[in-house]
Amino acid sequence: MNERHRVIIPKKSKYLIGVDEAGRGALAGPVAVGAVIWSRTNSRELKKALRSYPVGRDSKKLAPKQREFWFERLLVWRAKGWLDFQVALMGEKIIDQKGINASVRLGINRNLSVLSRRQAIVPSAGRILLDGGLVAPVIWSDQQTIIKGDERELIIALASIVAKVTRDRLMSRLARIYPDYEFQRHKGYGTALHYQALARFGAAPIHRRSYLKNLTDLISWRKIKNG
Q: Which residue segments constitute the domains of the chain, with CATH numbers given?
């Protein structure tokens, strides 16, 4: 397998955990924080199963069908006990109250708490790899933040996939509740289509009010309104 995308099996720690998020920059809906965990005991099976993963690719830039394919594979592997994963959805109200960074940190903490209980592990038994500027609680002392981590470490890429697929599916469901905004098309991000809907219909309950106060967004609305 390409060294840029490895199936790392921890030598000192029994478990390896990858963490990433999706939806940080969206104007509506939650931010999704994903975490994937595997252990040394399943290294052989995972190496074989992940041989065909597209190496060196930003998982968020994969085609939606590719992300769905790998998400479904992860569900199968979880059922087999080869790995586990968890996604925390931090909603727009939490984001508006606490800010995006604090909301993501809270999501990381929730995921690690759930996975550690489910897998019956203590923080000292796990090594955590996190994408970008993400940080785990200090109790998890063996942690590393990696710039462009989902391009370099496979377990972070898979955490990105579970976060993004979970969030995308939710936004598609929310599109049926708020059809005027066509969330299934842009997933809440600031596209021209989304700005046009905001200019015409105003904000929906799931919009992040703290994001819509941004001056650039307000200027964009006015430009669209004024033609």
A: 15-176 (3.30.420.10), 179-225 (no CATH)
